[in-house]
Specification:
Two copies of one chain form a homodimer. Chain A contains 14 helices and 18 strands. By secondary structure, chain A is α+β, with helices and mostly antiparallel strands. Chain A has two domains: about 1-200 and about 370-455, Aminopeptidase; about 200-255 and about 300-370, Alpha-Beta Plaits, CATH 3.30.70.360. In chain A, strands 1-2-6-3-7-17 form a six-stranded mixed β-sheet, sandwiched between helices. In chain A, strands 11-13-9-14 form a four-stranded antiparallel β-sheet. In chain A, strands 4-5-18 form a three-stranded antiparallel β-sheet. Chain A is globular and about 80 Å long. At the A-B interface, strand 10, helix 6, helix 7, helix 9 and helix 10 of A face strand 10, helix 6, helix 7, helix 9 and helix 10 of B. Strand 11 (about 305-310) of chain A pairs antiparallel with strand 11 (about 300-310) of chain B.
Chain lengths: ~450, ~450
Amino acid sequence: MAVQREAALAYARTHQNVFLETLKEFLRFPSVSTLEQHRADMETTARWLADYLRSLGVTRVNIYPTDGHPVVYGELITAGPNAPTLLVYGHYDVQPPDPLDLWESPPFEPTVRGERLYARGAADMKGQIIGVLAAVEALIRTGDLPVNLKFMFEGEEEIGSPHLADFITRHKEMLTCDVSLNADAGIMGAEEPSITYALRGLAYFELHVQGPAQDLHSGVYGGVVHNAAQALAELIATMHDEKGHITVQGFYDQVRPLDEEERQALQRLPLDERFFLERTGAPALWGEPEYTPVERVGARPTLEVNGIIGGFTEPGVKTVIPSQASAKISCRLVPDQDPEAIYECLRRHLETHAPPTIRWELKYIVGAKPALIDRKSRWVQALAQAMQTVWNREPFYKREGGTVPVVAQVKEILGVDSVMAGFILPDADLHAPNENLHLPTWYRGIETYVHYFCNLCT
Amino acid sequence: MAVQREAALAYARTHQNVFLETLKEFLRFPSVSTLEQHRADMETTARWLADYLRSLGVTRVNIYPTDGHPVVYGELITAGPNAPTLLVYGHYDVQPPDPLDLWESPPFEPTVRGERLYARGAADMKGQIIGVLAAVEALIRTGDLPVNLKFMFEGEEEIGSPHLADFITRHKEMLTCDVSLNADAGIMGAEEPSITYALRGLAYFELHVQGPAQDLHSGVYGGVVHNAAQALAELIATMHDEKGHITVQGFYDQVRPLDEEERQALQRLPLDERFFLERTGAPALWGEPEYTPVERVGARPTLEVNGIIGGFTEPGVKTVIPSQASAKISCRLVPDQDPEAIYECLRRHLETHAPPTIRWELKYIVGAKPALIDRKSRWVQALAQAMQTVWNREPFYKREGGTVPVVAQVKEILGVDSVMAGFILPDADLHAPNENLHLPTWYRGIETYVHYFCNLCT
């Protein structure tokens, strides 16, 4: 094992440029799952990924259609029945690239500047998928893969994985495994390896407000009807107090309190106010003052306005009273909150606060449960040991603010935990212009996976 | 005079279809002053209007360039020095037609359905311009014009007439007159002639809010930064109380109170709550409860959100914290409010209410002073008498909620009052889809102008 480990690491080091070129090819597909105009690109991307798996010798490769975008599946069951079986999860879809004018190079033309590769999906998470597959390639080209692997790559993570639970349920037997390796996570810094043991859930809504039957002249009718854009703003303003607490009744009822031991552990993370101020460029931080920033992003739920629109929004002047306005509103949830219960809370809040001068509708778009993982299991500890070897320091343990719906789904349907792996850096600008992958960290990540797979069999 | 009056009225009646065809030609130009892509259309429209004036025998016709869209000018000084000289004001620009999908026929393809002509600008105010010119044509084709007329047609009314004051100032001598006839007003109903004696002013702003330096992932940073869309909504919500009063300090300071006599007079107008409910289709009326709806739209100032935008507004799901959001906010003003003083009030309000977690900017876009006109003057009474003749009933006197910046400008620069004429009906859907002109009322309006010009010389 030790001999193969070294051979695989050597392979990984000498093939860094090959892996990079493969990743660039993957990144050129604009696989934006939320935009209808990219439907054909999603198919093309899935086909490319399936072909790439086949080129590695992966068997049973198949593109499974869903009611949305397809799932790419494949297996490498060569390590024998005594070796553990891991279900490697990834997603080949990406966020929309807008606002386009803020990109320094086009989002779908991967460009290396300095130590980083810039492209939509470079970090989240095409780079992470290719990272795992690079380690797999290094191991199988230099000997035998020490573990059994199943690959499940979906195309709908960025829209909340609406069809993945159904796919997992329908292919429960095929997906049987000991643990899931979820490669969609990050580490705290290039020199700060870390393991995520908690994820926030998500509840995504659309709120529509209708005032008058149609847009009206603000001179002729200004003063007698409730402006829909104003009414929507007034409703949104009822959802937080001035300290950043969510004022929707019942919202916090199911939040599991942080115990003192975990607060102490989180306190040790090098993520202070200044860290968040620098990362965000905000003039001042905001949010519940009883919690530290790192607690707020990991262990506290949120309610955000992801988008708002109403009335005349082009350049110039139009003196109109908008009849309609709408907002996309989403909540990040923590254990033990439930997205559908949160929908009910918000609906009741609107029933209480909406005035009779407007009509409104709250639509439930998508939801995902939060997750907490046992950080003392062998699956997590083998990863911690791999990081320790590559970075020569012990990893931090942290809660992640983002949502990976599949983690709750594989727990619920397959009954297995997920190990959160992945090497995204905090300044990767996920979901934003100039998303990027720090290449030295990426190469370390590939070596970490080589160690990880070997560690699991020793 | 009586003989010519009858001949001109007969001409107006037999030429209704000719006037209608001329109007349709005028309406086919998409002269949307606020949209850059229609700049060439504005020029074409001005040339068409100048040519049309020349075809009526109007002299000194000229298209005067401004720093924005041009002014079309011409004169008919044939009635001798003892006859009064009227400056006829109009605007050939129109509002943007969006939302396009709500139009039953295309906005720039004038279409007659039933008694109405549908097109953007049909009522506001290409129809009004052609109405005055039809009466002029009827008089000069059947004898002599009893008054001297100057025509000033601008192309920037719908964006707040930013260059008209400069034009009037630079051509003060050319524009000398006894009174201005402003044809941009309406009447209360097809069977309810009315004369507007007050207009609201306007102050138009843009409020920009910046939170974090760029859009952020709501999972990674949700809970530590102030969402720009939420912050903007919260600021907007501070501007009214729940009864519809504007809570910007000092906002009402310069409002001239309504005296009891005027309140009584306004009370007699047939514009009750039900009227406004039916016209607007709102589920309930809104606004300062101490004032009647007719007082609120005529004699009380407003603060409206004309448009709001921020974050992800396309279909689908994006879990982003918007870094920027902005709103177009405008106030309708009443005597003696001043747009620049109102800007200061709102700026101070934001200084007081904006939290340190965001940056903001309030831009002053355009402003216009409110106006009050002496309803007992000969200029207004000659119009009242013309309406009495055509409708066989006394007109109502009312305040208008809209803004006609030129009224304050001609008062200030030329020292003359404006008579508000024009025959727009309340259900003309100004600034909205399916804007329309009620043709029977339009024909009555043409006859009213014939009587009006004759009345001024008897």
